[in-house]
Amino acid sequence: MSDPASQPAQTPAPQQGADAAPIITVRRLAPSDSIAELTQLLHRAYAKQVAMGLKPLAGRQDDATTRNRVFSGECYVAVHHIPLPDLDDPAGVRVETRQKLVGSILYHEVEEAEGPRWFHRPDVGWFSQFAVDPDYQGQGIGQMLLSIVERRAREDGAGELALSMAEPDTDLMNFYLRRGYRFVEHWQWPYTNYRSVILTKTL
């Protein structure tokens, strides 16, 4: 089996006709990707929680923190491929595209903080820093990212895939519950102002 860390995972977003949806793929974060762009994406995606008075790290971290976090584990990004116009022929489109980061998920982040007991189980994989740009939500991008980390957890021999989320965000909680996740415990991270819930899904 090839090393998943060296192979980009690409999955087209579901489309319903030529103009129905943008071209989206999911792949590993590359060294050439803009950390500043990724930080801005995270801030937009977590802005709802910030507006609730919560302080999620992803919603306020700087570029250095983003860099440290994403390269501590396996970071996957959803990319919108935007065709570049052919300046020599206004009616044509170049083969080249501009890549815009529109989603992100981090598998097996290594934290300095202790972390919840559930994450320490040998049969449990986990993910964090899950985000989809608000302008791109509702297009199946979140499910694409979740599918990637579920596959990676299975490849690692995990029987469960877990996450930590802000307990006050009931909309996000319902998002996970609809996808088969269940509550296992509460946890308090040292850098947030809310209690987190640990959710897990049997793979």
What key phrases describe this protein's structure?
Aminopeptidase, 7-stranded mixed sheet, 7 strands, globular
Describe the structure in brief:
It contains five helices and seven strands; from the N terminus they run E-H-H-H-E-E-E-H-E-H-E-E. With 203 residues, the chain is α+β, with helices and mostly antiparallel strands. A hairpin with a 7-residue loop joins strand 2 (74-85) and strand 3.
Report on the structure:
This protein is α+β, with helices and mostly antiparallel strands and 203 residues long. The chain has a single domain (23-202), classed as Gcn5-related N-acetyltransferase (GNAT) (Aminopeptidase, 3-Layer(aba) Sandwich). Helices cover 23% and strands 31% of the residues. It is built from five helices and seven strands; from the N terminus they run E-H-H-H-E-E-E-H-E-H-E-E. It has a seven-stranded mixed β-sheet, with helices on both faces. Mean pLDDT is 88; it is low at 1-8 and 11-18.
